[in-house]
Amino acid sequence: MKILVDADACPVIAIIEKVAKEYQVAVTLFCDTSHILNSDYSEIVTVSKGADAVDFMIIKRGQKKDIVVTQDYGVAAMALGKGLYALHQSGKRYTNENIDQMMFERHLAKKARRSSSHYHGKGPKKRAKEDDEHFEESLRKVMNELNLI
User: Fold this and answer.
1) CATH label of the domain that carries residue 26
2) Residues 73/95/81/6 CA torsion (nearest 10 deg)
3) Is 17 left (phi over 0), alpha (psi -120 to 50) or beta?
4) What is this structure's pTM?
């Protein structure tokens, strides 16, 4: 079991590494060539800047019961389809029960953006300390489910 992170602009890498060290679980950070990552703990995999190159590499490298951390619903859907666990960086857990609704809502938002030059949807809210706490709690919960204590 390992943790695979869609690390481009991921705000919870330090939390992931802290928890992974406690559980003695390997972490792999995936980024494209436009990002530079350094880590004393994690393996870093840098892939070409092509569209979705990071996403496909995460799924290619993932094995059943690995944990994927991503904010991309498409990556989460592919991960679930492969038997992986998937967490959003906010701590929300992607499941087979909620991923279809999330993908549909993303589709509707994209459609609204395309149909109106005046559409200005709200961007993501500013990250709060509670988001980090919720993410850590969710990560620990998944790891406990995998009997890693």
Assistant:
1) 3.40.50
2) 40
3) alpha
4) 0.84
